[in-house]
Design a protein that fits this description.
single chain, 2 domains, 6-stranded mixed sheet, 4-stranded antiparallel sheet, binds adenosine-5'-triphosphate, binds magnesium ion
């Protein structure tokens, strides 16, 4: 992965809302982040830590008040003249934290076609893209003719994500997309994101409050805390910093806690990359227990250890 090109780079980025006014509110401080093409990145952090602000800087909705934001071939700097951002927005899609922000037309279909038409696609292609995005989100085609505000919370969320995917962005950013989805829909969405990333080479940034839902899929994690990017690294490094997550307002996933406990007891595990799924983890632990001359009761012991700490 190291030779892949950098598609997003934030250098010493500050962002203050309503800068220079009596209502100025500092949201980001000295943020340095780098994302390579084709990476699936999870973004975690407590409430108000700057996650949504960060995503809005990457697609140019906000301009930094300090430092620079490089995205594909655009460089965004403080006070630059209103940049021409249509080409950036076409290539960098953002699904907002609140899906209502996407849905302003009187039918779902028009909302889904808005991006493709706005970016210059012919009507027929826009219509095909809309239907395809709807299918990718496992929504019924009958919904195309409905008013967006008559959809359920989960359907609205999916339609909002579909409206971003319909334009075919190469960088897809989603701000807490799983917030109103049930567990099956969450898993489906994450599988879709993995496909977009692994098979189509798109770069994915997803904000989540549930680190555990994305742990098996994310190549990298960014943790925001009080406006600073306090961590950027892979799942193994994240596991190594599990003790700090609570202080950053992030619930420690059971899987990380369990792996940390076992690696501290069986040093031979610490040379392995952290298994991505609970099943793989149980297998690795069992092998290590047997190798260490255990009685063969690996899975039970593992459950005990994970449950009692
Ligand atoms: N429009 C705004 N005007 C003024 N301050 C804002 C605005 N939007 C966000 N902020 C402030 O900027 C900081 C970062 O907010 P942001 O929405 O980026 O956090 P977040 O990590 O996305 O939080 P959450 O998990 O609640 O969505 C917070 O202190 C917030 O109060
Ligand atoms: Mg937010």
């Amino acid at each position: 992965m190291s030779e892949r090109e950098t598609v997003i780079e934030l250098k010493n980025v500050d962002y203050t809302y309503q800068a220079g006014s009596p209502f100025a509110a500092a949201a980001l401080h000295d943020v340095n982040i780098r994302v390579r093409r084709g990476t699936l990145v999870g973004i975690a952090g407590g409430t108000g830590s700057g996650k949504s602000t960060l995503l809005q800087l990457v697609n140019g909705l906000l301009l930094p008040t300090g430092g620079s934001v490089s995205v594909l071939d655009h460089v965004l700097t403080p006070g630059m003249k209103k940049p021409r951002l249509n080409s950036l927005r076409r290539r960098v899609g953002l699904s907002f934290q609140f899906p209502e922000q996407h849905l302003f037309e009187d039918t779902v279909e028009k909302d889904l076609m808005f991006g493709p038409l706005n970016f210059g696609m012919p009507r027929e292609e826009a219509q095909n893209r809309a239907a395809e995005a709807l299918r990718a989100m496992r929504l019924d085609e009958a919904l195309l003719k409905r008013h967006p505000l008559t959809l359920s919370g989960g359907q609205m969320r999916k339609a909002a994500i579909a409206s971003v995917l319909a334009a075919g962005p190469e960088i897809v950013m989603l701000d807490e997309p799983t917030a109103t989805l049930d567990s099956a829909a969450r898993r489906e969405l994450i599988s879709l994101l993995e496909r977009l990333c692994r098979e189509e080479g798109r770069t994915i940034l997803m904000v989540t409050h549930r680190v555990e839902e994305l742990l098996h899929a994310a190549d990298e994690w960014i943790v925001m805390h009080e406006g600073r990017a306090v961590f950027q690294g892979g799942p193994d490094e994240l596991a190594g910093r599990a003790g700090e997550l609570g202080g950053w307002g992030v619930a420690v996933p059971e899987q990380l806690r369990c792996w940390r406990e076992w690696t501290s007891r069986l040093p031979q595990l610490s040379s392995l990359p952290m298994p991505r799924t609970a099943e793989e983890m149980a297998g690795a632990i069992e092998r290590a227990v047997r190798g260490a001359g255990g009685s063969g009761g690996g899975p039970e012991r593992e459950e005990n250890l994970c449950a009692t700490n």
